TrEMBL record:
This is L-gulonolactone oxidase. It catalyses: L-gulono-1,4-lactone + O2 = L-ascorbate + H2O2 + H(+). PROSITE patterns: FAD_PCMH (PS51387). Residues 1-35 form the signal peptide. Pathway: Cofactor biosynthesis; L-ascorbate biosynthesis. Belongs to the oxygen-dependent FAD-linked oxidoreductase family. The keyword Metal-binding does not apply. Keywords: Ascorbate biosynthesis, FAD, Flavoprotein, Oxidoreductase, Signal. Residues 64-246 form the FAD-binding PCMH-type domain. One of its GO terms (cellular component) is membrane. GO terms for biological process: L-ascorbic acid biosynthetic process. Its EC number is 1.1.3.8.
Amino acid sequence: MAFGYSPSYGSIHAAFWRTLLGLYCLITLVNTAISTPPEDPVKCVSGNTNCTVTTSLGAFPDRSTCRAANVAYPTSEAELVSIVAAATKAERKMRVTTRYSHSSPKLVCTDGKDGLFISTKFLNHTVRADAKAMTLTVESGMTLRQLIAEAAKVGLALPYAPYWWGVTVGGMMGTGAHGSSLWGKGSAVHDYVTEIRMVSPGLVNDGFAKIRVLSETTTPNEFNAAKVSLGVLGVISQVTFALQPMFKRSIKYVMRNDLDFNDQVLTFGKKHEFADFVWLPSQGKVVYRMDDRVAVNTSGNGLYDFLPFRSQLSPIVATTRSSEETQETLRDAYGKCVAAKAITSTLFATSYGLTNNGIIFTGYPVIGSQNRMMSSGSCLDGLEDKLISTCAWDSRIKGLFIYSTGFSVPLTQVSSFINDIKSLVKIDSKSLCGLELYYGILMRYVTSSPAYLGKETEAIDFDITYYRANDPLTPRLYEDFIEEIEQIALFKYNALPHWGKNRNLAFDGVIKKYKNAPAFLKVKESYDPQGLFSSEWTDQILGIKGNPTIVKDGCALEGLCICSEDAHCAPTKGYLCRPGKVYKEARVCTHVTK
């Protein structure tokens, strides 16, 4: 057998159904044209009072409920100023929420339950488009999809962006969102911003709110703080982007073995402007994305509509989730591996959703305009269908319930990090099949940024998605391998965690990794000396007060802590705290058989 043992009938049966359902789900994605849009992440008991907010993934890392006394929905900068002024005068805590709330950590949470949520849901308009100057000014609640479309209307393009277009301009600025490139200024969205208008608390003479207009030329110190702000400086009202003339891209996916991947990763990004990788370590394969800029008059009308971001039939998603829950209960690693191979092979065979004309895929290269090729998320587009189909992670259905881990490893250390992961796979080839059920390890190029809380150096960003149990005290199959990878990256190679992803442990001491952190904190103190836009969570990750880790029984199972004793794992279920297998300094929850 390919994975080293002879599976039981139960394993084959589970693998068969998981494979069948996975393939059927992919076929469904191609044919489903409608989808119930996500609901507002803010819910209130009465009108806009007594409110809660959650993340699009359904639960924060610590599964807590974030509350506020009210939510406000400004529709203009003037209304935003009025809202911030009233809250500042009353000394109320404030945090900003967005249309879809895609950040995993508790960035949207206020302290206690008397604070104020300020939603940018209706701050989603174009303020000014200047085709001659190649700039576009928009409100901060505009989604990436809207931004791409508004730029295209005047023949312009944003060069780099995340692959999911359901994020907002303010959300991208708040967390340092990026695409993949070593070229130009790099792939971070905030490094293509020329001006930021922000509303922050003011003094009595200011009317308790102050509009700050920031740019690289007039206020470089404050501008570099505001480019990745975590929402602690105030509310971003408007953002001006420096865009480029519309161009086209030529994309081709190639699957190879990963024998020389360590070397290829160092040079591939210099050869292809929008290069990335999908690594399938348990299969020993890598999918190389050969993605280049071509002239706008090059023939081609391609479209990138990533298959997992399309709408999915809710019953299929529920059955698929149930299947993985069964595999976890039965410790059916073989079933996961068979299913992972089938799903990743099907994604590759269907070009991940690329089509040559918006309808069908006829062959590589796929050439299309930047606005049609850079990002996707069509599960957001549909009309209400009573949850018959949704985005796969919609918490109103039994759908994906996952961890989203992301960190940037310095490019000079990436080869060694890849070797460490390969060493783990050699110990047990089935160990990382669970990652491949969710696309594999996505690897994107990033560069250093002048933003004080931006990337510090050229790096590879590793995005890892994996199963999360419904019960916080239920351990996961091969969780020790994934925990070790996490700790190797963060502590052996000093990786920077993505501000909008990750579990609590990733942020322990993180602010010490940023050389410009003192400069950022000085701007924060100047803009909001009372800390009205700060929260317990932001104080913890910025090193101001407290620690993001939570130590209690079972805390390591959900990444709330790194285990230091067996009770932090699940000793009654055979999971004990043990050293790492490759990185001995790691402490992970390992299934120990007697």
